[in-house]
Amino acid sequence: MAVTAVSDVTPRPVPRLRRLEDERWLALTLLAPTAILLGLFIAYPFFEGVLLSLTNTRVGVQGGFVGLKNFDKIWSDSIFRTSVWNTFWYTGVTTVFKLALGLWLAMLLNRNFRGKAMVRAFILLPFIIPTVLSTFAWKWMFDPTFSVLNWTLFQLGIITQRINWLGDPDLAMTSIIIVNIWRGVPFFAISLLAGLQTISPELQEAAAIDGARPWQRFWHVTWPLLLPVTMVVVLFSVIQTFAD
To answer: What is residue 174's three-state secondary structure?
Structure first.
């Protein structure tokens, strides 16, 4: 005679740590500290600053809502309008040149040639050199008296008198654009090179077998696959350049 014992077993609650096995809970847990820090130190001050700019609040004095009246006097200032225009012009021009030169360098570095590692390290020099040292070097190159640029142009017979690079507004803006491009091209080149290396060479080979020319292979195969990386790089460059 068989006797079957039936016991009343209650299910145990799932431990909270077991929830981390779910990717959704794990993602929320990992992102929560970063989201809190960004919200407290970036998002909140930004929105609070926007709200204060729409009021006539002063230090120690509670103000009221005035809308865009605070910006009327600022926008009526011709110097401010010129500064805004120069900022957008500076950001747009430098971003276009950095993208073009960075993409060109990335395409060259993506090929196999002797000394490729040394060339990659050389391109990173603008990032390796401290900003203070590079600033002094460029300031010396743009010096009206001891400028190596003026000396080179004079020896080539292009100029007959010294150029005051930083004394003229247009030349000063051009000089700043050149320095920003020099410093920003390596970021574009290395980032786009990383994106190019994720593209399978088989796609290029298949397009070449189908009769596509190099420009067609780049425009219809490489560029669409590289576009997501390019958009992120351009976004970071625009933010950094605009802040500069």
So the answer is: helix
Q: Where in the chain is the domain with CATH 1.10.3720.10?
A: 77-243
Instruction: Give whichever of 32-41, 69-78, 79-88, 165-174 has the largest mean pLDDT.
Output: 32-41
Q: How far is CA 161 from CA 52, 137, 138, 155, in A?
A: 52, 22, 20, 11
The pTM score is: 0.70
Q: Which of 240, 134, 133 is nearest to 191 (CA)?
A: 240
Q: Which helix (H) or strand (E) holds 61?
A: none
pLDDT tens, 139-188? 999 988 888 888 898 888 888 888 888 888 889 989 999 999 999 999 99
Task: Tell me the three-class secondary structure of 115-130, residue by residue.
Answer: CHHHHHHHHCHHHHCC
Please name the residue ranges forming H helices in the chain.
23-38, 44-53, 70-76, 78-109, 116-123, 125-128, 131-141, 148-155, 169-197, 201-209, 214-217, 223-243
Question: SS3 sequence, 65-128?
Answer: ECCCCHHHHHHHCHHHHHHHHHHHHHHHHHHHHHHHHHHHHHHHHCCCCCCHHHHHHHHCHHHH
Q: The domain 77-243 belongs to what CATH superfamily? A: MetI-like (1.10.3720.10)
Q: Kindly state the DSSP code that residue 143 receives in the 8-state scheme.
A: -
Q: Which residue has the tokens 């399978």?
A: 200
